[in-house]
Amino acid sequence: QVQLIESGGGLVQAGGSLRLSCAASGLTFSRYAMGWFRQAPGKERAFVAITWSDGSTRYKDSVKGRFTISRDNAKNTVYLQMNSLKPEDTAIYYCAADITLVVGVFGAKTWGQGTQVTVSS
């Protein structure tokens, strides 16, 4: 059974930084693409960043240059370093495994429980 456990969310002022972590178990981590998604109040869950098994990455346009996704295969952990945070980054952030791509939209088959990130202005 795959489990994804996020940590590192919290309240930060605009311009600040947070680092999210996601510890994975129950899967051969190094073989999986891992991602971060977020759901803002009143909106659908949306793609933020992905790291493939070869370490390559892709980002949502609005977070490019501010967010960095990385992975440590020895620790079965994926990270999301978030810098220069903006109030519009406020959302519940979800770690995801077994990433899908359907009609150009990223999704996933396995989700963590989510961690709240709140950015105050």
Tell me briefly what this model is:
This protein is an all-beta fold and 121 residues long. Helix content is 0%, strand content 57%.
Write the layout of secondary structure elements.
Elements lengths: L2 E5 L2 E4 L4 E8 L8 E6 L6 E6 L5 E3 L7 E6 L4 E6 L8 E12 L2 E7 L3 E6 L1
Note down, in words, how this protein is organized.
The protein has 121 residues and is an all-beta fold. Helices cover 0% and strands 57% of the residues. The strands form two sheets. Strands 2, 4, 5, 6, 9, 10 and 11 form a seven-stranded mixed β-sheet that branches. The protein is globular, with a radius of gyration of 13 Å. The mean pLDDT is 96.
List the keywords:
121 residues, mainly beta, seven-stranded mixed sheet, 11 strands, 0% helix
Q: List the secondary-structure elements in sequence, H or E.
A: EEEEEEEEEEE
Total beta strands: 11
Helix content: under 10%
The oligomeric state is single chain
Note the gap between the termini: 40 Å
